[in-house]
Amino acid sequence: EADIYQTPRYLVIGTGKKITLECSQTMGHDKMYWYQQDPGMELHLIHYSYGVNSTEKGDLSSESTVSRIRTEHFPLTLESARPSHTSQYLCASSRSDGGGYTFGSGTRLTVV
Amino acid sequence: AQKVTQAQTEISVVEKEDVTLDCVYETRDTTYYLFWYKQPPSGELVFLIRRNSFDEQNEISGRYSWNFQKSTSSFNFTITASQVVDSAVYFCAKRGNAGKSTFGDGTTLTVKP
Fold first, then answer.
1. pLDDT tens by residue, B71-85
2. How far apart are CA A66 and CA A52, in angstroms?
């Protein structure tokens, strides 16, 4: 059973819509991440958080925003979706001691 | 950013062949961790191994083995007697002192029956 959950699994949405991708983990991990990934391709870090009320932008410029009000929850929001946002979004979490990441199943977003 | 390089973009083997996936990394960190992940067609990344930079012992887990050579900054992954279910994209990653992991571009492994 997955310890990190992403919803929705698939999403097709029209240009200009506001969307929130949900990510929750039950492992009590301090660190959480959002990656953008095209299938089989390199992951690009777009946001990360090292704890509650801590968020940072990652290596890849993104028009999305994140929040971390609770340890277990790290939602990602796109205020106005565009076709260029079409991709897979992977949420991950990890312990602070260098433990390996746990990834969610991803949200495959298509903006039409 | 300190790079992780997986030189092989795609590898195709026949079942029961051994296959090695290469990973070379750059680092200025004194302490770091190295990882391998598997991404099957379902999309979920599966954590395979973590190696601390202080621990250069090779590791074997079933048909999987990892060879860490600090002198050459390499962390290669070998699958022995490959199976069709090993078909996936495999990612090598490094995490340094700052905590942000750097991933390689991935190697797509296809194991044919």
1. 999 999 999 999 999
2. 12
